[in-house]
UniProtKB/TrEMBL annotation:
<feature type="compositionally biased region" description="Acidic residues">
    <location>
        <begin position="48"/>
        <end position="59"/>
    </location>
</feature>
<keyword id="KW-0699">rRNA-binding</keyword>
<keyword id="KW-0698">rRNA processing</keyword>
<keyword id="KW-0694">RNA-binding</keyword>
<feature type="compositionally biased region" description="Acidic residues">
    <location>
        <begin position="23"/>
        <end position="34"/>
    </location>
</feature>
<dbReference type="InterPro" id="IPR029028">
    <property type="entry name" value="Alpha/beta_knot_MTases"/>
</dbReference>
<dbReference type="GO" id="GO:0019843">
    <property type="term" value="F:rRNA binding"/>
</dbReference>
<feature type="region of interest" description="Disordered">
    <location>
        <begin position="1"/>
        <end position="62"/>
    </location>
</feature>
<feature type="compositionally biased region" description="Basic and acidic residues">
    <location>
        <begin position="35"/>
        <end position="47"/>
    </location>
</feature>
<keyword id="KW-0489">Methyltransferase</keyword>
<keyword id="KW-0539">Nucleus</keyword>
<dbReference type="InterPro" id="IPR029026">
    <property type="entry name" value="tRNA_m1G_MTases_N"/>
</dbReference>
<dbReference type="Pfam" id="PF03587">
    <property type="entry name" value="EMG1"/>
</dbReference>
<dbReference type="InterPro" id="IPR005304">
    <property type="entry name" value="Rbsml_bgen_MeTrfase_EMG1/NEP1"/>
</dbReference>
<dbReference type="GO" id="GO:0032040">
    <property type="term" value="C:small-subunit processome"/>
</dbReference>
<protein>
    <recommendedName>
        <fullName>Ribosomal RNA small subunit methyltransferase NEP1</fullName>
    </recommendedName>
</protein>
<comment type="similarity">
    <text>Belongs to the class IV-like SAM-binding methyltransferase superfamily. RNA methyltransferase NEP1 family.</text>
</comment>
Length: 283
């Protein structure tokens, strides 16, 4: 009887020890799992932060630069001014956006504004035509200025390579209007920046300022007009970048029309650059 009782007591003690060990294992397991979970959360959080940082950096970290051959380095150069450009920023919903007639028609109508007047794509097309020209590639473009409808003056360096798509261009101009500048990739050079008015303070003293408008009574052949211009004078071309209306000719020495038909700003600039390329024999 005593022997049998002793065997049972041994089994119970053994079961208690096994149960105690098992409880210790169960108690230790969540600690390990918790540590792994924390590590995974930390890695996931750091990865997420790195991804967010990469996205923020890559979104508008800067714009590339186009090299120029400087074939007309010793000759007079051209300067372009885009007047009354539709570049206006507003808070739509929870974010600030560059207003345009396609994406913000409802917002503009709700605020008693005409959507047809919000055309930043006109500025985009005009700048691309200007910066992609042979005149600019050869170094014949001295400076580019954009003045908005609200009077904000923006300087665009001729060797800046602007985004080709309108969506990215809108993001770039939003950054310029909010932060007042944007730099080149990997450099401190400011390729686009907001500067003080008036624009005349940045123009060469001996420059000839020419305004363009379809409403002008002086209709000229742009090729002959440019060819007859003095070879010692920088030419400043003032072109409207709005959908409707005309530019102010207060600082223009001459006010001309180059076609009997209304032309877009981009096509008008193409005609001007082609005439200058012919004058300077840029092929």
């Amino acid at each position: 009887m005593v022997r049998r009782y002793a065997m049972k007591a041994g089994k119970k003690r053994k079961q208690r020890e096994e149960r105690y060990d098992r409880e210790e294992e169960v108690a230790e397991q969540p600690v390990e799992d918790e540590a792994i979970a924390k590590k995974a959360m930390t890695e996931r959080t750091s990865d997420g932060e790195e991804e967010e940082e990469k996205e923020e950096v890559n979104e508008l970290e800067g714009i590339p630069i186009d090299p120029s051959d400087l074939k007309v380095a010793n000759k007079p150069k051209a300067i372009f001014i885009l007047e009354r450009a539709s570049l206006e920023v507003a808070k739509v919903g929870k974010t600030y956006q560059l207003l345009n007639s396609d994406d913000h028609a409802h917002f503009l109508l709700k605020n008693n504004r005409n959507p047809a007047e919000y055309r930043p794509d006109i500025v985009h097309q005009a700048l691309l035509m200007m910066l992609d020209s042979r005149l600019n590639k050869s170094g014949g473009l001295r400076a580019v200025y954009v003045r908005t409808e609200k009077g904000v003056l923006i300087e665009v360096k001729p060797h800046a390579r602007l985004p080709r798509t309108f969506k990215r261009f809108s993001g770039l101009m939003l950054q310029v209007l909010q932060k007042l500048s944007t730099s080149a990739v990997g450099k401190r050079e400011k390729l686009l920046r907001v500067i003080k008015n008036p624009v005349s303070r940045y123009l060469p003293v001996n420059s000839r300022k020419i305004g363009f408008s379809f409403s002008s009574e002086k209709l000229v052949d742009i090729n002959k007009y440019v060819a007859s211009a003095s070879s010692d004078t920088d030419l400043v071309f003032v072109v409207g970048a709005m959908a409707h209306g005309k530019i102010d000719k207060e600082y223009a020495d001459d006010f001309i029309s180059i076609s009997g038909y209304p032309l877009s700003a981009a096509y008008c600039i193409t005609m001007i650059t082609n005439a200058l390329e012919t004058k300077y024999n840029i092929l």
